[in-house]
Amino acid sequence: MSRVEIRAPMPGVFYRKPSPDSPPFKVDGDDVAAGDVVGLIEVMKSFHEVSALEGGKSVRFLLEDADAVMAGQVIAEIEV
Amino acid sequence: MAIKVLNPGLLTSVQDLGRPGYFHLGIPVSGAMDRYAMRAANLLVGNEESAAGLEAVFVGPQLAFAEDAMIAVTGADMPVKIDGEIQPGWTALPVKAGQVLSFDFLTAGARIYIAVAGGIDVPVALGSRSTYPIGALGGFKGRAIARDDELPVGRPSGRAISGRGVPDDLRRENPVPVELRILPGLYDHRVTKASLDRFFDEEWKVAPEADRMGYRFRGGTPLEFNEREQPFGAGSDPSNIVDSCYPYGSVQVPGGTEPIILHRDAVSGGGYFMIGTVISADMDLIGQLQPNTPARFRRVTMEQALEARHARAAMLDRLRKALQ
């Protein structure tokens, strides 16, 4: 079993929830399907969804909610 | 000849070297945030430096070419792909009819510039093809490009040399932390000497709100203002002044907390004091800053600012000679 990285397509602030009062898009251990939204990135006063390019099992996040993120940085890993 | 937009990226707009001459009427200079990179891209494809190209921030677009074309991509480090195959940046690249230009993730810098031989041939508005989206002025229909747009391309000059690149020493690097040189004034006297010294000593970070209007920074200590009775017409906050013109590159610090460097799409006036102005030689660097990038502000004199301007002009001359 190998791990696949989900990377940030752009820099900004990473959020794991669609809004402050909502549950997170995914929690550690969840399965992820290709196209699933795993977080939001806020940059230039707007929010952009981050989707998984491929699916996998047992996601593990490497960033906390509201962490700063650079373009290309690994946000999470999944098992494939 | 047209280019079809399959995916616009995050925010991609038609830009040239800008629309100077109307700032006093509230219409910003617009144009490429990194004009050196825009000029280099145009020279590579045999265009006039002032031709219009595309500026894409953080995420590259996906573009399909209806006819053969010569293109070049400069600016940020973002792998260029033609039909999925990686191609070099800062190089004149031939594209065949039907091929698709796309990009991988950004690795350094913030904005790429895509030039096409013949230039993006949108109508000229007030002397420029640059897009000013807030004013719905210029560019492609006054807005950022969108999926399924067909971008018109002008007639190529035929001067481009396929495969020719910009020499390495003329490809500007994107150093981190970045150092931006600032000429203090006209309102730096509003801040205590200790506070002003600290402003230039501390490390700041680019805020995620930074955009074409202004680059905001945070992380430094709030400024301390010299006490005064606010003059008639100025607001009550100590960072307020009687309304004034804002130069391109000026650094305002609303509330004394987060400096904002005004850039190509900035407002032209208002009531915030300005601690100084970023020198012209360093304005292009700002266009390549990602959010969270550490930055320092270095105080310079007018003589140093002019020397830096001459050095920058000399580098541009070397670029022109290299791509003649």
Automatic annotation (TrEMBL), chain B:
Gene3D superfamilies: Cyclophilin-like
Residues in Carboxyltransferase domain copies: 24-315
InterPro entries the UniProt entry points to: CT_A_B, Cyclophilin-like_dom_sf, PxpC
A Pfam family of this chain: CT_A_B
This protein's UniProt keywords: ATP-binding, Hydrolase, Lyase, Nucleotide-binding
Entry coiled-coil feature ranges: none
GO MF term set: ATP binding; hydrolase activity; lyase activity
Protein's name according to its UniProt entry: Urea amidolyase related protein
Organism phylogeny: Bacteria, Pseudomonadati, Pseudomonadota, Alphaproteobacteria, Hyphomicrobiales
